[in-house]
User: Fold these one by one.
Assistant:
Number 1:
Amino acid sequence: FELLARVRAMMRLKEMHDTLAEWNRTLAATVKQQVSELERMARLKRYLSPQIAETILGQDDELFRTHRREITIVFLDLRGFTAFSDSAEPEEVMEFLRHYHAEMGQLVFKFAGTLERFMGDGIVIIFNDPIPCEDHAQHATLMALEMRDRVKHLRGAWLKKGYDLDLGVGIAAGYATLGTMGFEGRMDYGTVGNLPNLAARLCAEAKGGQILTDQKTMSRLEHAFVAEPIEQLSLKGIARPVLAYNILSAR
């Protein structure tokens, strides 16, 4: 009887050991899956805006459907960049862009903007899609002011290297159509419509250190920001002249 009890006890111990081993295997597999998911997220965030990466990994199909939403869109690029890239070595241009993109990218994420794309020295940022952002026009403008101040600080080092560059910014708020464009093997997230065209044209008109917006957008911002009106601008692709404002500071 004592021997039988010992055998049964040993069998129970083996069952417990096997169960514990199975739990450990399950836990290890779960941890491995979670680590893999984190690594995938980290890789995606190297190439996509965090909001877009998280939406893709979360399998939220809303991002992929064409939709219309009120947003604020910001275009920025550097005055003098064409002359700089024509005279500098390609490696020098790439090194400069890596540093410049890193400086501007930190501010995009600080103000919870969605980085739509890089275009050489040009950068396009969206607010209020795909992640909702209350007071998106104000967030975008605060980001633009901080970017302008950051470039003003960087210009000292740039000028010492012979880089005569300065930042121009265009901001427009309103409705736009958003979604993914491309084909099955290569998709991009972006906007179409009059609004991105307006922001791009305002950016092209901005002198170094200027942040230009239109009257409609300025009406949303005048309680929080100081701006000076400039002459009406005839912008390519825009039917009527645009009364533009240069945003100077927060109130």
Note: Helices lie at 2-47, 50-57, 81-87, 90-110, 136-160, 194-205, 215-221.
Number 2:
Amino acid sequence: RKSINEKYKEIEELNQKIGQQAQLLREKVRIEGIFDACIESSKGGPTVTAILVFGDKNRMRRARKAVNQFVAQSYPNKQIVIVNATDMSVTTHPHRLVKEVKWSDYPGDLEPTTGNMRTQGIDLADGDLLFPFWDDDDVYDRHLLTYLVSNYQTGKAVLLNSQIRVDIRNSVSYVHVEPDGIPNTILCPKTAARFGRPTGGEDYAFWNINWGLKSVVVDNRSFPTNTLLMRVWDGNNVLPVSAFMVPPGLDKEPYEQMGGRWMLGGNEAEHVKAVFASFGLKAEAKAPTEQPAGV
């Protein structure tokens, strides 16, 4: 027979579990309320064209996931242009939201650099607004475009100042913050602005040259909006991990010693895992129970 103390302990543990579940339910209601308001404010809004460039057949599975994440976006007025420099199609069947074009059909003798391919995507975009960096090494919450459009101001570019960065091979994750805005989160009007030729660094150049003084930076450091865009390093990215992942505290200890560390609050970590899982991705790490200091 259990003692009174043991029974009290069981009751206390049960109450804690009930409290945790109630908190999760309140959080879910709050999240849905935030994005319901965003969806309502963006109804009847302009068409957004996202651009996906594809030049490596080994990344086919990732590219198709990126297209699926675009189609799943809650914002209704949208289109994605895929600029394909390979002999394999990313799409397996026609879709009204998707326009896939071959680089070889583009007139001229330009090389298929990332910048040149993004420019082709702009040339073929039907939308009034552009999201030029719908890349296959990112994971997108389904409300990303809705949130960006709800913060759009005519004639200006909108950028987030925060995104989640994940090294999925070593299970390291943190909130990456750039106070002046993160260029690859940009939503901008379709204008005469085009990319230069480079592969790598074209995001900063495009933003700085064309929109640096005409930008609205949205402070999305707080959950849940800080999980709208998650950049994933899996070893097949253009950038090395040292340039992709620059978590706080890197100056105090070698990055190689940070495996399995999620520098996120519990809510962020669980949400990231859930979004990843919905697209067949898995990152192993024990989520912390509290938000770390300084993030």
Note: The radius of gyration is 21 Å.
Number 3:
Amino acid sequence: MWAYESIFYQIYPLGFCGASYENDGRQTNGITKLQNWIPHMKQLGINAVYFSPVFESDSHGYNTRDFYLIDRRLGSNESFSKLCHVFHENGMKVVLDGVFPHVGRGFWAFRDVLEKREASDYKDWFYLDFHRDSAYQDGLWYEGWEGHYDLVKLNLRHPEVVRHLLGAVSEWIKQFGIDGIRLDVAYSLDLDFMRQLRAHCDQCKEEFFLLGEMIHGDYNRLLKEGKLNSVTNYE
């Protein structure tokens, strides 16, 4: 596979673009400045670029608001698509961060739950208790990923959640031509979801690279049975 022979260059786009920490709703197009760095990357021998989160989020990128939209603090879907095309023209693969275990409080489906409570069509997308209160005094309780309540844990066993996320991946491949995904906190992903993701990506694009973030534990369980191609080794 191409990834095993590649030299990756990691970019945290929100930092690169000098974006405001909180998403203030203002549209910019700073991501296009990355084109100016391509000659430098080529001089270094870089042939794959890994972007930390690029999708619309509340603040730091990992609290996603919309998996289908490039963060307005970076640019637009169209501008990012053009950038990816330029990277490909220069012989570089493109890998995006896939943040699937959780979303931000600004995620559209969670906002619907806060507004409609038990009447929301999306109440089963999350782990909720309408008889308790949250740290944000929402009048309902939800499970925060690893106790972080700015990160609302997604129910990755719900068919509509899976359909929504796999649909987003399809769009990333279609619009941006991406060649792989780095799975944020892959150690906490549901393994059935991971198998579905693997099968879906293989159908969408040949030699699609799936890299999982592992901080500790048994790396092999994510590599067996055709799930991931590789994992990080932070331990």
Note: The CA atoms of residues 7 and 46 lie 5 Å apart.
